[in-house]
Every structure is written in structure tokens, then in C-alpha cells.
Amino acid sequence: MAEINQYRQELKDRIISYAMPEFYKRGVKAVKMDEISQGLHVSKRTVYET
């Protein structure tokens, strides 16, 4: 169970690290969840669930 929680935390950190610069550059409304998921090579569902 601890491994799952660690993985989810690491994934959450990756998502934030990827998305924040995009939000600053283009604005929150311009950044799409599809772009974030494609940039991280994960499914959009994974981004939403994390």
C-alpha cells in the first residue's frame, strides 16, 4: 500500500511540475488536460484521478 501511495505522490508531483509552467506561459484556460496527459505519456483519466 505504501508503494502505491508513493507512486501516486510522485505522479502528482510530475503533473504539477509539467503543468505549472504551461499555465504561466499560456494561461489556465488555454492548457488542456489532453496536452498535459500527452506530455507526461499517461492517460487523461490518470491525470484526473491523481
Radius of gyration (CA) equals 11 Å
How many beta-strand runs? 0
Shape: elongated
Q: Report the structural category.
A: mainly alpha
- Strand proportion, as a percent range, falls in under 5%
Write down the secondary-structure element order. Answer: HHH
The average pLDDT is 94
Q: What is the tally of helical segments?
A: 3
Q: Biggest sheet: strands, sense, closure?
A: none
Whole-Å distance between the termini? Answer: 16 Å
Helical residue percent band: over 70%
Q: Runs with pLDDT <50, length 5+?
A: none
Task: Name its key features.
mainly alpha
Structural summary, described in words:
With 50 residues, the protein is mainly α. It has 3 helices and no strands. The radius of gyration is 11 Å and the shape is elongated. The protein starts with a helix and ends with a helix. The model has no long low-confidence stretch (mean pLDDT 94).
Write a concise synopsis of the structure shown:
This protein has helices at 2-26, 33-40, 44-49.
Question: What topology emerges from the helices and strands here?
Answer:
Layout: H1 2-26, H2 33-40, H3 44-49
Helix pairs in contact: 1-2
